[in-house]
Amino acid sequence: MSEKTENRVALITGAARGIGATIALALAAEGTDIAVVDYGEKSAAEETLAKIAERGVRVAYYRCDVSDFAAAKATADAVFKDFGKIDILVNNAGVTADKLLVRMEEADWDRVININLKGCFNMIKHVTPYMMRKRYGRIVSISSVVGLMGNAGQANYSASKAGIIGLTKTVAKEFAPRGVTANAVAPGFIKTAMTDALSEEQKQAMYKLIPLGKLGETEDIAEAVLFLVSDRARYITGEVLRVDGGMCM
User: Fold this and answer.
1) Would you say 92 is a known binding-site residue?
2) CATH of domain 9-242
3) Does residue 132 carry a pLDDT above 90?
4) Which residues contact residue 83 at a Cβ distance below 8 angstroms, ignoring those fewer than 6 apart?
5) Helices 69-83 and 119-134 meet at what angle, rounded to 10?
6) At residue 5, does pLDDT exceed 90?
7) 190 is in an annotated binding site
8) Residue 235: CB partners within 8 Å, gap ≥ 6?
9) Where are the domains of the chain?
10) DSSP assignments along 48-114, one per residue
11) For residue 18, what pLDDT band results from cuts at 50, 70 and 90?
């Protein structure tokens, strides 16, 4: 079987920038058509959309709040109508609202759970009918090492990412008979604009937590996703792949 994902269609949430954009570009380089789903204005995604188009694949932008059940359905239906199929779903959209639990407001909890976890449920719920018709599908949801180990100041985020793992394992069991696999990727500390802004002292403290002694790159997450949606991973489902430099062993 081919190891590539050419002639397939991927719906990727939170794909306008950051890890989501890198995943989209990696899949596009393999010949995958890309549906970029993001909550921001299309203008904020223009650079990513242009880079994807340079790969010679079809690309379209869909503005969607993934925490909105009806909006998620409308988006999934629109992607199917425009592309004719949905082979790959990557649940990447996520937010943080970090506070110690004693200071965390209900709104902080609800927003993170609704976008990070309910958003995954919404997209899976509305995309899987199209996958089941073809008896083929690849679902990858971006969790986090804090969903495995917890983290002070991130009760909401940790709970949402742990929930994604439980959701992934259940989806894997329910949809396996229909040829659909579901896996999760759990990133550790990844180099982003936010980590670039940290002081050298903060960075050194972070490095001490990572056996490999350095931050990961967004490309490291994209490569893991690329593997899990490829034919090389056709017999892998319900797995949580840590990409964390050994941080959560």
Assistant:
1) yes
2) 3.40.50.720
3) yes
4) 9, 33, 35, 58, 60
5) 30
6) no
7) yes
8) none
9) 9-242
10) HHHHHHHTTS-EEEEE--TT-HHHHHHHHHHHHHHHS---EEEE-------B-GGG--HHHHHHHII
11) very high
User: What is the DSSP secondary structure assignment for residue 7, as one 8-state letter?
Assistant: T
- Annotated ligand binding at 18? The verdict is no
What positions carry a catalytic annotation? 157
129 has pLDDT over 50 = yes
Is 99 annotated as a binding-site member? no
CA dist 34 and 59 (Å) reads 5
Q: What is the DSSP code (8-state) at residue 159?
A: H
The predicted structure's pLDDT at residue 1: 37
107 pLDDT exceeds 50?
yes
Six token digits for residue 164: 């994604």
**pLDDT on residue 106:** 98
pLDDT tier at 158, thresholds 50, 70, 90? very high
Mean of all residue pLDDT scores within the chain: 95
Q: Is 16 annotated as a binding residue?
A: yes
Give how far Cα 240 sits from Cα of 95, 99, 109, 172, 228, Å: 20, 26, 24, 11, 10
